Amino acid sequence: MKNILKSCLHSPRFMTGFILFIILLGIALFYPLFHPGNPLQMIGQNSFVEPGTYLSLYDANTVNLNGKTSTFIMDDAAVNRADSNISEADRQTMLAYLAAAGVDVSHLDTSHENLDSLVTLWQENYDSSKKVEGYTTSAKKRDLRTLNSRLLAALNAGEQTLLTKNGDEEVRTAVANNAYVRSNQVANVINLPLGTDNFGRDMMKELAAAIGTSLIIGLIAGTIATILGLVIGLLSGYLGGIVDDILMFVCNVFTVIPGFVLLILIYYSVGQEARGVTTCAIVIGITSWVWTARSVRSQVISLRNRDHVNLSKLSGHSLVRIIVTDILPYIASYVVMAFILQVSSGILAEAQLSLLGLGPKTTTTPTLGLMMNWAMLYNAHTQGYWWAYFPVIAVIALTSFSLNLMNTGLDQVFNPTLRD
Amino acid sequence: MKKILALVLAVAMLLSVAAAGAETVTTLPRNKTLYHGGWQYGSIAAWNPLHSNSNNSMAISANPRGSRTLVWETAYMYNALDGKLYGLLAEDGYEWNEDMTQLTFGVKAAAKWNDGTAVTADDVVATWEAWKKLDGYNGTYAGYAPYIANIEAADGKVVISLVTNDEGKPVNPLLVYDYLSGTYILQKAWLDSMFEKHGGDAKAVAEDTCSEKDVPYSGPYTFYFDNDQLTVLVRDDNYWGQDESMWGKLPVAKYQAHTIYSGNDASLVAFKEGQIDVNQQFVSNIQDLWEKDGLAISTYMDEAPYGVCATMPTAWFNMEVPVLQVKEVRKAIAMAVDYDTIIANAMTNQSPSFADVPRSVMNPTDGEQALLDHDAIQPYQWDATDDLDTRIEKAKALLDEAGIVDTDGDGYREYNGEKVSLKSCCPNGWTDWQAAMEVVAAAGEKIGLDITTNYPEWDIYQTVFTAASQTEYDIFMWSPAGAAPSSPWARVRGLMSSEYIGLNSNWSGNFGHWSNERADEIIAAIPLAATEEEQKALYTEATILYLDEVPSFSLMYRPESFYAVNETVWTNFVSQDLNAELAAEGKPQIPPLDLIDGYGIAGQYYIELVE
């Protein structure tokens, strides 16, 4: 045993897979501890908010009202400000429009030095009612209008004051353009490392919870499939004869029906009300034991005529004892590897089912497949909201990758022909 | 031998490719074709406008809110923006007799069928008679017979007589408008030949799929091509509507085409690529298409909600479920729903919020809102003043008072000793609705009611919620009438009338089978209200009843049809800008109904090529 563990630790494949798996497990276990709360709470009143840190504007203003700001004199502050208000693309649009409107802009480019003269020219020449060639479509006209109003806002933003009410008295506080607040001075800061989904839920929280759910589904499904496969394989292989015939008939029936189709049919007929996480796992488990049973059976057949087994038989040991003590230990390594693969395919099966809209009920538990399903329903993939689906795909891929790595690593350890 | 075999196989392959190619239409000239999206799924079943399931979206869709008049035409076109009827085959304007029991209108002298014969009052009469004969196989006659007694021709004009009540007053004059804008007029000669062909067998007439060249039409377009991937209509350059009494010119695009996509995502990609010009599809965060992707895509309005919302997708309570017969339960659920989240996340703000347009039986258009006494209904609008947390507390108190409390400590309330478990349902794949149902289910969780979502497939869903009796869905979604000539009366009726209880395949309203005597009285009284004041009082009372009893509750506002255009090839589509120009010229504004429905078809005459 100690030797096996040691060789496991020395197998780079196993260790890579194991570490990856532990990291994912760690996220599932510890992220919710540090960020408690319902992972399905719809916090955002916008769908698909980009990943980032969000500071409460109200609280930042309060810091200013309290006079606790810090002042920094930054040379490039003005440039940055101008750039964020009127982007490079905006300036190109302005230049193109002015050129089309017959204004000489040959002396101008999009650099910061030219911005003032560009803005002046724009203000002199932009007229929303004028028909300029190339700018007659609703889309172009709208884009120019929004650009113009953004520009006006930026121009008017010379001085900012906060107007607050103290009883009936109105108090004005200036907002200096070189005043800064430290992010932890702001009372409310929301960290969204993976943004939000279509419901305005914190993707990272949801993902951590979903990893947990998917692992549970994988574990339950894997355990059921492995136990079923093991029992059927052991009995069929060891007993042989009519029992073997019957069990193998059942096995063959299950083999010729595509497993996934069977899974869909069973799951669909269970009905949506009964589709909890456990039901999902059980259904996956009872549709995926076939190959384990077949392989166990073939291994048992080669074992059952070994001398030590015959000796046990002659000694009058019971069927159970022979199977448990004389046969099982020889195939234990195979069973462990089969179990790992079953866990991995269980997780994938849930993802596939949910992607088809056949997953567990949404309101109660997040799962990786359901997250993918909603991202797909809301066209996240065609609209470029990568954070709504890519992390989920990555996690699904990494989970099954890590489990498969562990499996091949174990294979190297257990299989003498593969040992280095 | 092998070489010969290979040669034979290669030839066979080429032949099969050629055969497949022969079926596809030669490529349509892009700058003469207007591509639509979001209407046609699956291939066309019939070209017979009398067929009740033709699945022929580009040609056949008759509906009071706006019939599709590309091929067959209606007497009038409804314009949801000003609530008026504009003459199409009929002359502009119609006349009522003094007690409003008879309506008379003339048929335009210029109106012609494609075979050159004139459209006459006799055709209008023959069409009504045909609906009558088809009763039982097509719902049109059954829908209008309680209101329209007879349609006849007199002095070349059409006279519609209404069904009257004991006092000699019309039962409902509003429904005549629905008939005039919501049913096609068909050629008498063709109708006669159809019944003759089938020996008078109405069922056979209604189920005859007809060939695409068979049926005479009066509209500007006719069949050009269709298969399971594409359907195309081509302009009939002899269209009567180029007469000065109608449009004065032909519609701009030579072809109207609709590619059939596998689903929403494929359709969206095609729209972004400019392969669809006018798209009727819900696109989440549609502003990202121009703000982030920089595409030449625009909507009716520049800002949210981007379109004209005319209907309210509604959650209905099934009154056959005992716990939902308790008014407090219905009200508590409705109070606890986070509507802002539905509007922000399910509709991605393509709907005004309930703070902007407080809930009632009216849609957000100014015309309908003016029919309410807003001060009187304000106390009943549960989300007008209270924020969500207050509402949840009030909802909990309401349930406690009604004696629906959690006695066994599992976090869920019991009714008659049983845990309250409800299912909220809508069709699978209707994303904005599914998201709304998720929010309703989340509301249940907050007030101690176990609500779970369930998304049956559409073909199952449609048979269950329209059944005369069902206990499968506890809370389920459907929209009441949107903007039609008979709205908002039609909506009030659809929301509250007990006449729909016990009807099988009931698509008309009151799907939850709620019944209230006073509501029925109000519904009967509104069409006959003598003054606007009286009407307003009745609408206000209906709204109060609706908000107090909560037989159902609106979840959001929604456009009648989604509308977005890609201006890669065509431009000058219907928009607020265009309507402002039209208004300046004193012309009627055009509703953003995708350039094909009701008065929205007028947009076809304004589009221009970008190049």
Rg over CA atoms of chain B: 26 Å
Radius of gyration of chain A: 32 Å
SS class of chain B = alpha+beta
Alpha plus pi helix count of chain B: 19
* Strand residue percentage of chain A: 5-15%
Strand order of the largest sheet of chain A: 1-6
Number of domains of chain B: 3
Euclidean distance between termini CA atoms of chain A: 19 Å
Report strand order across the widest sheet of chain B.
8-9-10-1-11-22-12
CATH topology of the largest domain in chain A: MetI-like fold
Determine and state the CATH class of the largest domain in chain A. Mainly Alpha
Arithmetic mean pLDDT of chain B? 90
Provide a brief overview of the structure:
Chain A is mostly helical and 420 residues long. Helices cover 64% and strands 6% of the residues of chain A.
Describe the structure.
The complex is a heterodimer of chains A (420) and B (611). By secondary structure, chain A is mostly helical. Chain A has two domains: 2-44 and 198-418, MetI-like (MetI-like fold, Orthogonal Bundle), CATH 1.10.3720; 57-187, no CATH class. Chain A is built from 17 helices and six strands. In chain A, strand 3 and strand 4 form a beta hairpin. In chain A, helix 12 (290-304) runs antiparallel to helix 14. Chain A is elongated. By secondary structure, chain B is of the alpha+beta class. Chain B has three domains: 62-207, Alpha-Beta Complex (Dipeptide-binding Protein, domain 1), CATH 3.90.76; 221-307 and 561-609, D-Maltodextrin-Binding Protein, domain 2; 309-559, Dipeptide-binding Protein, Domain 3 (Dipeptide-binding Protein, domain 3). Helix content of chain B is 30%, strand content 15%. Chain B has 19 helices and 24 strands. A seven-stranded mixed sheet of chain B has the order 8-9-10-1-11-22-12, covered by helices on one side. Chain B has a five-stranded mixed sheet with strand order 18-17-19-14-20, with helices on one face. A four-stranded antiparallel sheet of chain B has the order 4-5-7-6, covered by helices on one side. In chain B, helix 2 (121-133) runs parallel beside helix 5 (188-197) and helix 16 runs parallel beside helix 18 (532-549). The radius of gyration of chain B is 26 Å and the shape is globular. The interface between A and B is large, with 36 and 51 residues.
